[in-house]
């Protein structure tokens, strides 16, 4: 495997703030790699360090084995797609896409041909003559993508590229990006604060928190085996059993995560290899295929996911009433210890 991007002990300080704090990571060539985390956790700064728009305060960055320090952005084998698209409003779409090639001194015939190819790649073959203002948000996003792809970079950096789109279009573009990634076979490094997006698209995800990486793993591993309380909470919002309640229920002070879909409401309180807990229903939220029940157990709030029976006339009859007392149970094996 070829390593596309490697961080070794990289920090980037802004005054006293460590936007990126001693981060080490490796992105393999051809991977769809996501950087996931809340606002201000250092994702964008990490991406800008790869692009060369920022320089590390300490540590080293290698791109395809080559030390990146001192290499200007345009000489790096990477291109960036920004959330705000950054298209030139007065230029038509074809010229927008060809712009980077013009700066590189590539002749007109050649660059317009390449621009058309890139537009075809993002399914906008007939839009070259239009201006950005004459396109929808989703189409502008595709143009921004075409513009970043026209130089045939080995690494494509995407900074929350779908953030401005409505949910339906965002989901459609997620599928398109994933398909494009598969077709091109190049490395994608994708910044997002949307855990669903990161899980559904990526080969691996790095979870950022306060400038540090908490865990890097494949989506399924992150979801089923979170290593820290932060990851358990941020990726898939697991319940965390901790403190005195952990001691009471598990006879251990180690915090555990337990997924809402692994908890059941039961009548039998003697199931083998299960943890049982009594609680009070605080809220019932109907989500169509599922319902989410919030239950207070010893002062801690637990989310419980229930499948709804879509075939009956009264498909909410199985749901508990707010304020009622319920017995929860979950398999001991479904609990994941956290650091
Ligand atoms: P978001 O999802 O909101 O874009 P992020 O995870 O991408 O957040 P960064 O933009 O990398 O986070 O910012 C990380 C931290 O560094 C924040 O505290 C931010 O305020 C700070 N920061 C980033 N760029 C600068 C700058 N140019 N000058 C000063 N502080 C900065």
UniProtKB/TrEMBL annotation:
Keywords annotated in UniProt: ATP-binding, Cell membrane, Membrane, Nucleotide-binding, Transport
The keyword ATP-binding is annotated on this UniProt entry: yes
Pfam families: ABC_tran, TOBE_2
GO MF, one example: ATP binding
Domain (ABC transporter) ranges: 5-235
PANTHER family in the record: SPERMIDINE/PUTRESCINE IMPORT ATP-BINDING PROTEIN POTA, SPERMIDINE_PUTRESCINE IMPORT ATP-BINDING PROTEIN POTA
Protein known as: ABC transporter ATP-binding protein
Organism per entry: Leeia speluncae
Organism classification: Bacteria, Pseudomonadati, Pseudomonadota, Betaproteobacteria, Neisseriales
